[in-house]
């Protein structure tokens, strides 16, 4: 750790020295070679995805400084292939695309491989699909070179929509060639996204475990968490709870509770009570013996998941028991929907609605099949064919003697259920 901090201080010192033109001119030109400056940029970017978010400002500074250096350097410096690679990697690391155009326009000695610059120009202009095959071949050819991992990464980005399996292969190539770097972080995260989209549970869980072990503190970890939750909830019947527990065990307790809470929420909305209960149980167990701020919210999601089960009374209490002011706007909508469902299920029937609407058979006479058929064909009888009515609107066949309170109950219930369906559909779209 001390060695890493020492290196970081050294790179910062180099950056501060480059802030002053006089200091820069005083240094030997080889000290400001693009490949050396690129090392500083790579170290800073790798520090960001491993948890040093304060390095973001230095990253922006380094990108600007390298950009200026590449535009003012003597072209003969590209006699050193390391500087050619540095210019290309800078471009693939968030650098100014116009700088690549400048270098190509001034490359009279043919330092840059036209195939590489052509695919980069197409990719950076949003036309990567036009050179997808060439990019895939170029990434394979340069796989053992310094630019190899970067070419593989952008190749995966191009193929992710049309050839996801090939994209996964390129992402594997990128991450294996650049372990512990921003390249591996991006490759792993995008690999999980492909697995979510294509239903590749086993590979998705394997990529997820690698991501959590290496890049838990990345600023993009929240995006990964969303993908992981979608993967688990989408395969609730196939995923093993212990696998989920093992993967998330690499996180500290607060982060685990947050992810389990996301799983509980998504599972409750999707109508997957078993998965929701597992996640709720993990939230509660991880907060044992402490002031678990997530506990009431976990009970709320657990209550939502429990509405269709036999223990609906306790589920309804958990749903209504949490203060709505402690919920987000979306969760308040869920609470209202869940409360309405619970009320409809638990409401006692109106005794009047259970009375017979037709006259009883007081004579206790046997009804033959012929009589039953005749009765059934009478207008207004249950199951009778409706007669045409003015305006082309068919009769409902409902007896005018039907209990009005029952009619009101049915109408109210349908409108509430339609409203709840709309809320849940909107909630699902926001996920």
Write the layout of secondary structure elements.
Layout: H1 2-19, H2 21-26, H3 34-49, H4 56-72, H5 81-92, H6 97-105, H7 114-124, H8 132-141, H9 148-159, H10 164-177, H11 182-198, H12 201-215, H13 221-234, H14 241-248, H15 253-269, H16 273-286, H17 295-306, H18 312-321, H19 329-346, H20 369-376, H21 404-430
Walk me through this protein's architecture.
This protein is mainly alpha-helical and 431 residues long. It is 66% helix and 0% strand. The chain contains 21 helices and no strands. Helix 8 (132-141) runs antiparallel to helix 9, helix 12 (201-215) runs parallel beside helix 14 and helix 17 (295-306) packs across helix 18 (312-321). The longest helix has 27 residues, at 404-430. The protein is elongated.
């Amino acid at each position: 750790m001390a060695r890493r901090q020492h290196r970081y201080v050294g790179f910062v010192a180099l950056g501060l020295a480059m802030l002053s033109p006089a200091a820069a001119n005083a240094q030997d030109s080889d000290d400001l070679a693009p490949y050396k400056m690129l090392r500083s940029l790579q170290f800073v970017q790798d520090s960001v995805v491993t948890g040093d978010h304060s390095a973001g400002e230095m990253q922006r500074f380094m990108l600007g400084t390298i950009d200026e250096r590449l535009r003012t350097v003597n072209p003969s410096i590209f006699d050193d292939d390391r500087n050619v690679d540095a210019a290309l990697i800078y471009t693939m690391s968030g650098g100014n695309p116009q700088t690549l155009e400048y270098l190509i326009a001034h490359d009279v000695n043919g330092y840059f491989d036209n195939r590489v610059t052509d695919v980069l120009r197409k990719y950076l202009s949003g036309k990567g699909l036009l050179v997808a095959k060439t990019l895939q071949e170029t990434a394979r050819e340069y796989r053992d070179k310094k630019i190899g991992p970067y070419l593989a990464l952008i190749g995966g980005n191009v193929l992710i929509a049309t050839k996801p399996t090939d994209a996964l292969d390129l992402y594997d190539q990128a991450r294996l060639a650049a372990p512990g770097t921003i390249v591996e972080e991006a490759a792993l995260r995008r690999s999980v996204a492909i697995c979510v989209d294509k239903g590749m549970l086993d590979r998705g869980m394997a990529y997820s475990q690698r991501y959590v072990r290496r890049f838990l503190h990345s600023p993009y970890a929240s995006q990964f968490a969303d993908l992981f939750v979608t993967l688990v909830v989408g395969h609730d019947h196939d995923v093993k709870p212990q696998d989920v527990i093992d993967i998330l065990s690499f996180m500290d307790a607060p982060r685990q509770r947050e992810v389990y809470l996301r799983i509980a929420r998504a599972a409750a909305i999707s109508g997957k009570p078993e998965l929701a209960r597992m996640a709720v149980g993990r939230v509660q167990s991880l907060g044992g013996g402490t002031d678990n701020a997530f506990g009431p919210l976990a009970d709320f999601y657990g209550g939502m998941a429990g509405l269709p089960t036999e223990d609906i009374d306790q589920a309804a209490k958990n749903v209504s028991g949490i203060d709505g002011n402690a919920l987000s706007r979306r969760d308040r909508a869920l609470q209202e929907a869940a409360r309405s469902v619970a009320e409809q299920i638990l409401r006692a029937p109106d005794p009047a609605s259970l009375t017979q609407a037709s006259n009883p058979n007081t004579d206790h006479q046997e009804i033959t099949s012929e009589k039953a058929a005749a009765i059934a064909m009478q207008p207004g009888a249950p199951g009778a064919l409706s007669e045409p009515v003015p305006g082309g609107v068919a009769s409902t066949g409902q007896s005018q003697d039907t209990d009005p309170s029952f009619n009101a109950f049915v109408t109210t219930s349908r409108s509430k259920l339609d409203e709840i369906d709309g809320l849940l559909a909107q909630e699902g779209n926001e996920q």
